[in-house]
Amino acid sequence: MSDATAKFGAPAKVPAWVNLILIPLVNLLAAFILSGAVILIVGDDPLQALEVLIYGAFGYPDAIGYTLYYTTNFVFTGLAVAIAFHCGLFNIGAEGQALIGGLGVGLAALYLDFMPGWMVIPLAIFAAALFGGFWAYVPAYLQARRGSHIVITTIMFNFIAASIMTYLLVEILIAPGGQSPESREFAEFTWLPYLHDFLPFPNTPLNLSFFFALILSGAFYYFMWHTRWGYEIRVTGQNETAARYAGISPARNIILAMVISGALAGFVGVNEVLGVHHRLILDFSGGFGFVGIAVALMGRNHPVGIFLAALLFGALYQGGSELAFEMKTINREMVIVIQGLIILFSGALEHMFRPRIESLFKRRKATATAEA
Amino acid sequence: MELFQIIILLLDATFRVATPLVLAAMAGMFSERSGVVDIGLEGKMLGAAFAAAAASSAAGSAWLGLCAGVVTSLALSSLHAYACVTHKGNQVVSGMAINIMVSGLTPTLAIAWFHQGGQTPSLSGDARFQPITLPFADAVREIPVIGYTYAELISGHNILVYCAAASVPLVAYILYKTRFGLRVRAVGENPHAVDTAGISVELMRYKALAVTGILCGFAGSYLSTAHGAGFIREMTAGKGYLALAALIFGKWKPVPTLFACLLFAFTDAVQARLQGVELPIVGVIPVQFIQALPYILTVLLLAGFVGKANPPKSIGVPYIKER
Fold first, then answer.
1. Could you give the CA distance from residue B304 to residue A146 in angstroms, rounded to a whole number?
2. How much is the ipTM here?
3. A334 — contact with chain B (CB < 8 Å)?
4. Residue B144 pLDDT more than 70?
5. Confidence (pTM)
6. pLDDT tens digits for A303-320?
7. Class of domain A45-327
8. Ranges of each domain in chain B
9. Phi and psi dihedrals of B279, rounded to 5?
């Protein structure tokens, strides 16, 4: 009996780089080709657009600062969506959790500023995790204990969060005498330091949250693959019945994964509210929560992949604003089209190219074994 | 008479707001009953709204606009089917991708084609669906209560409002009394049984999603060529999700879903009227609370605090044929 027949029925292995690099790149390429077609339709030159995009994202020091600042948000939401995915859950509510997390940051900075800065900043970060985590806890509890579908509940919670934020900013937290729905500016000592405050770096919104995001990425890896909690979450996600049989409580892990997910999403508030705007405003979450889904999908739920995917989307966001200036008919919205197409190809249509590419490699491997 | 008039006006506004919700919820009914989650209702409506307004302003005919809207929505729905049924992709991700793509694509195309900052030119005359005065409406207006209600509330809407009203019994008939409807419900409950009976699960889901596309096209066209006078960016403003909430709140059944849509639309109409009004006992109710009410109600329902929701059993699960 040859090796090939002995393994019949078992999934044949393809080289890891095919799975982790080649297939995501093919999906990305497909998305970019279609985006190029859209640019052609609206009457511009796709190659020139790509050039502007890349230069706008990485071409000069300011651009890099902005790109990394957006990347920070996407690392937070990407990790948030990924930990839910590991538990077999779809957290579509990162947007709402980011908003409520930002609310926590804002409340801490607004009402605790009688304390010194070195106390307020950690408290504000803690508040982001607490508030964001709570906003994910409710849907998680309803999923785990009452069986309501988490996708629907988290969608609803996004809308409820937006309503709460509007109410609070219009009626209660609005700056005294202010016209627009935003709070007063925080005291300056509560601001998260910018990178250019202590490094020779141009003035950009890039702040310490970036390093916080990197630390969390490392912690995410350790937690997921080197602790019992991470293991239990992954088992629950792979097979709930097996988890229960092994004495792991699925309900507890669903809640744990979602609370961590909400806390991670809430950190968008740290970057945006404490790091950049220094006041509570409406809509600071800017769709980062939804893009987090794409980031997690592209990054294969692994921190390294998530960082690379976040960098890609950060570059798209920053380069996209350049497009509006440089090109005749393209504007910022083009970037949203590209995002949508990336989600489509690397998420919904992930099974379109995969079997063909995989069979290509399996066949090559089979002939290699036959010759040997 | 004063109070009566207010009620009639409120209900009139309710009908106008409910129309796109009803059409979109009926659209979602087919998709979800056939076992395919559709959070892309929002994107399909937005795409249809843009296509309808663009075609209508180019051709000067609201009917051609409607055709363009339906075709666009149908194309997006087919894309959803291609991803979810043919390639067994994640249905939520696919819906999400469609929503995001369309929300970027519509202003991009609008700016390129119309140069008005993401809008289409404002429509008038035949390029919009005009109110229809039903027969005898003017004659019976003077009859108290019944005549007034007929003239003010029933008459004087555009054709798509009546389409929405007709869609509910029609959808109920199709779902419960025709072979097609039975099969749609069956693939949503137990696709293996349907497959065993020699019916293609994939084809049924494609057909159901086609109906979803057509109805969503009506819903979107209504927004830009009947209710509004042209396309504005993000003009669906969450109505697709609200329709989805209504569908769930109506427990995936046509008539309860209609009432859920009317309830949500009514809260919207009341909200517009109650702004800043002091009520006895409770005082001023925040607008935002009333706006969030449909979502809160849906969460409560799903949590089992308001009746029990029974989703189609195979919803969200791609069908993999055994070999």
1. 7
2. 0.86
3. yes
4. yes
5. 0.87
6. 999 999 999 999 988 888
7. mainly alpha
8. 2-237
9. -95, 155
